[in-house]
Amino acid sequence: MIVTTMSPIEICKALNSDLPKLKIKANSCIPKVAKEIKKEGKYPAWKWVEYTHQDSRNKYLISFYAPTQSYAGKPQIQYIAFLDDDKERVVIRWGFWPYQKRLSDEPKKMNSISYYCSHFFIRYRERVWGGRDIPYNELLCRYFTRNNASIPLEMNEEIKRDYEKYGELANISFQQRDGVCFINHWCEGEEQSIGQKDSDAIAVVLYYTIITYSMLSDIQKKAIGEEGKKYITNYYNGIIKEATNDAIFRQINQSRL
Questions:
Q1: Mean pLDDT score, 222-248
Q2: Which of 63, 60, 62 is nearest to 83 (CA)?
Q3: In 3-state terms, what secondary structure has residue 217?
């Protein structure tokens, strides 16, 4: 069973080893879940199953999501893990992030793990859903299905005043569908091992709270928009630059033949 004394990479690997039986359990639940979704006929639809792994005793929530009727028979599936400490139950999402030293390089898989404190979902319920009495498990399913993509934002005084007092780990936030998440982010392990089967490199994110767009001032909205645009522009400019450099390099080599 995962415990708080384990390192992020140890927890990630333990959860990955549970995946085969998690998938078997999820697939066995699809017929019943699909029947319930079709019977209710309301979309988007969220269903879930609590599951304790027979061997590791790790606790999970298996999320089933049907955004429209066409997904009712084949809902989207996600896995959410729980880590209990002395004070609260921490929610965990884990998996891989694409890693490239150069944009032209072949992407490698880098381990990743995200921790969500209870305060995060208290604020998510309050700010995004107006404090509605949504079952906690459904609240988790809603968050992870609605916010499965993030745009990294470099923090500045216009996005969050006095952000520097939270330290270097808080110099990035994530822009998502439902709002802006304030986080701590860092990497552990050997960069050279990324892509290898037994890599100890891992990206770690601690999610603390979420701010909805309606809570932001015009100055904040503008700053977030500018940082988001900067990230996207730099990303695609990098792709174009790498492609251009590679094309020039190929032309030079061909001219030598």
A1: 70
A2: 60
A3: coil
**Residue 163, pLDDT score:** 92
Tell me the residue type at 246.
D
176 Cβ partners below 8 Å, 6+ apart?
A: 147, 149, 150, 151, 210
151-197 confidence digits (pLDDT tens): 999 999 999 999 999 999 999 999 999 999 999 999 999 999 998 98
183, 207 in Cβ contact below 8 A? yes
Q: Residue 243 and residue 248: Cα distance in Å, rounded?
A: 9
How much is the average pLDDT of 72-85? 96
User: Is the torsion defined by CA of 72, 80, 167, 103 positive or negative?
Assistant: negative
Task: Give the number of residues written for the chain.
Answer: 257
Identify whether the C-beta of residue 177 lies closer than 8 Å to the C-beta of residue 149: yes
Contact 82, 90 (CB under 8 A): yes
CA distances from 32 to 62, 134, 250 (A): 14, 22, 56
User: Phi and psi for 220 in degrees, rounded to 5?
Assistant: -65, -45
Residue 220's H or E segment, with its range, is helix 218-255
pLDDT of residue 252: 44
Kind and range of the H or E element at 142? helix 136-146
What stretch of H or E contains 80? strand 76-84
Could you tell me how far CA 121 lies from the centroid of its own chain? 15
pLDDT in tens, 40-58: 999 999 999 999 999 999 9
